[in-house]
Design brief:
- The chain contains one helix and nine strands.
- By secondary structure, it is mainly beta.
- It has an eight-stranded antiparallel β-barrel with strand order 1-2-3-5-6-7-8-9.
- The chain has a single domain, classed as Lipocalin (Beta Barrel).
- The longest helix has 13 residues.
- The chain is globular.
Amino acid sequence: MKRLPLLMAAFALTALAADVTGTWKGTVETPMGSMERTFVFKVDGNKLTGETSSDMLGKSTIADGKVDGDRISFNITASAQGNELKLHYTGAVKGDEIKLHVESEDGAISLDYTVKKVS
């Protein structure tokens, strides 16, 4: 019986996690010009997986993804002109929009933009 309250609490926390499963798109202004990026998210409990793609940086797999209430975070490794680029994303979900902040591992890139759910 002592486990029942713990199970109920764990279920409640999982139920509060934002469901970002689906396809999201947005455009960000970079030093190299505008870049449209597509995110395909899958959520399992508090774990966020999927992939992201753009014409400029190609396709990347989402790693270390987490959902905590209306907050998400994940990492990708992209290729830019033959160089590996590690990016860390954080975001806040509000309805069919996610406000994202992305930073490169070395701090040289720091961008903010909004993506919208398309399916």
